[in-house]
Design a protein that fits this description.
Layout (H helix, E strand, L loop, with lengths): L3 H16 L3 H13 L1 H32 L3 H21 L17 H13 L2 H10 L11 H36 L1 H24 L6
């Protein structure tokens, strides 16, 4: 089983990832603002379905990978650190936009809302890299079944993402209006997020794997 301290650190990493603007957040916010809260929530359920695909693929893949290629851990570790640094730069780079600058989207049916949410997440590079490069750092063969650990972490990540995105979907309109009138807070949020992501990248790069 995943050690409790590692699990708490994973919760923090999952929280940082979901709070960092990406295709999922932008799509859910845009739907909520353009078509109402119900549309945003339906889109969110589609996004959650996409997470299940990423989670099971990672769980099955990691089980095979750790058994076949032990050195793959080091490659994944450095890939994860590099991606976190990239996300930190995206947060603080000049001209970075806010996810609350919603796109204008046409009104869609319930089925299409769910499917587009699913597809948005399935093709989301941020989530794909998270499961490929960051997720494996919290899984260790010495803690038991890699598959079971992956399931625990996967459902934890899905729970964190659902909770945060549901709150955002239900309050997107209000938040968008507030940020329009308080642009400095959005700038501050970007720099804080960039600093935290950069710190997590450094920690990940310096992490030493325990012997199995």
């Amino acid at each position: 089983m995943v050690p409790f301290n590692d699990w708490l650190l994973f919760v923090g990493a999952a929280l940082l990832i979901v709070l960092t603007p990406g295709p999922n957040m932008i799509y859910v916010i845009s739907r909520s603002i353009c078509q109402g809260r119900k549309a945003g929530v339906i889109s969110l359920f589609g996004v959650m379905a996409g997470f299940l695909v990423h989670m099971f693929a990672a769980a099955l893949g990691l089980t095979a990978l750790f058994m076949a290629v032990p050195l793959a851990y080091e490659l994944l570790k450095w890939a994860g650190a590099a991606y976190l640094l990239y996300m930190a730069w995206q947060a603080v780079r000049p001209g970075a936009s806010s996810p609350f600058e919603a796109r204008q989207l046409p009104v869609d049916s319930t089925r299409k809302l769910f499917f587009m949410g699913f597809l948005t997440n399935l093709l989301n590079p941020k989530i794909a890299v998270f499961y490929l490069a960051i997720f494996p750092q919290f899984v260790s063969p010495e803690n038991g079944s890699v598959f079971v650990q992956s399931m625990v972490l996967g459902f934890t990540q899905i729970g964190v993402s659902f909770t945060i995105n549901l709150a955002i979907a239900l309050s997107a309109g209000t938040l968008a209006t507030w940020f329009v009138h308080h642009p400095r807070w959005m700038a501050a949020q970007r720099y804080i997020m960039g600093f935290v992501l950069g710190g997590l990248a450094v920690r990940l790069a310096m992490e030493q794997r325990k012997a199995a």
